[in-house]
User: Fold this.
Amino acid sequence: MIKIFKNVVDYNFIQKRFFALILSGILIVLSLGSFLYQGINWGIDFSSGYIVQLKFQDNVEIDNLSQKLSKSNLAKPVLQYYGSKNEVIVKFQENSFVNEKNINEFLLQNLEDQSYKLMKLEFVGSQIGSELRDKGEWAMLVALLSILVYIGFRFEFLYGIGAIFALIHDVIITVGIFSLIQLEFDLSVLSAILAVIGYSLNDTIVVFDRIRENTRTIRESSFMKILNISINQTLNRTVVTSLTTLFVLVSLLLLGGIAVTNFAIAMIVGVLIGTYSSIFVAGSSLIYLGVQVQSEDQK
Assistant:
């Protein structure tokens, strides 16, 4: 392709769309297969379990506590500091070893060498978890439909379909990775997924806006060339934004502690997938949706 704009890189992303389609197809199939085969590792926020607040006489190490509380075939509990290093929040999944009748006895047996005070004990029932799951699913559905309406008015309906396709692609793969490696899916991960939807949409709108501009100004090029020019023009902005966001998220993952680990992982995966979809998926989807014909008819 001939360079039309100076100081703009000239990678032929559209030509690579078939490889991107194969990669996305593989990731989506793996994600859907994981959903069906092993499901999602729902956290206590979405299932039944206990949230316990313990205050120790001295500072404690979370790793040591986790090892002590992970005995008796108990699924690994989630621990995090609460304000200081002598106060800890512990989240247990409800099972035969930890239930309403024996949770105090379980704590005494496994923390017998620790001096602590039980500050709070809360039970999260499966009905509440089910309601949270339903509301989370509705939140994502409403977000996607609102995006479709917004982009449909700002650009045109087929652009909205392309954006929704890219967003669904990002959500399925991000959640699929959590399912594949069985990371706990809690409310912090759900909030990260919603944030990823907004982040990916912002990138997609920037690309779509440039495509719309170029279809009006670059009359001598085919629609596929216009797509490629537009993606290249916005590439620097997309990469710089993603890298600066990733620097913050990696710092949060390494230094933020266990409380934000899953949130940071979900955001890192989502930003990487969202950047990939903004470059390879969103623009290419317009070709398969027939926007090419409409754009050329307007010339």
In short: The chain has nine helices and four strands.
